[in-house]
Amino acid sequence: MPVFCSDMNTPDLMKVAADYHHKRIELSESERKALIDLLKLRGQSELEYGEELEIDSVRLLRRVTGAVGVYFS
Question: In which band, very low, low, confident or very high, does the pLDDT at 1 lie, cut at 50, 70 and 90?
């Protein structure tokens, strides 16, 4: 059973990424890449330029240039 799916909301996807980062769950390399790619797409469509969303240790940031990044702390 997949840990995440594309119809999950963005905060829930970020919680999955945080769980992976803190080693509470395991993801294959392809699942990890798909999760990051999905978060970047969400950042482009849901965040305004210069806006960020932070959940647990994961930050989704849309820069004023339009570039979207996913950061872990």
Answer: low
Residue partners of 14: CB distance under 8 A and separation at least 6: 39, 53, 55, 56, 58, 60
Neighbours of 50 (CB within 10 A): 11
List, for residues 6-61, the tens digit of each pLDDT value: 999 999 999 999 999 999 999 999 999 999 999 999 999 999 999 999 999 999 99
Specify which residues 62 forms β-bridges with: 68
With CA atoms as reference, report the closest residue to 20 among 5, 40, 36, 37: 36
Distance, in Å, from the CA atom of 73 to the CA atom of 67, rounded to the nearest integer, reads 19
Report angle CA 70, 18, 68 to the nearest 5 degrees. Answer: 10
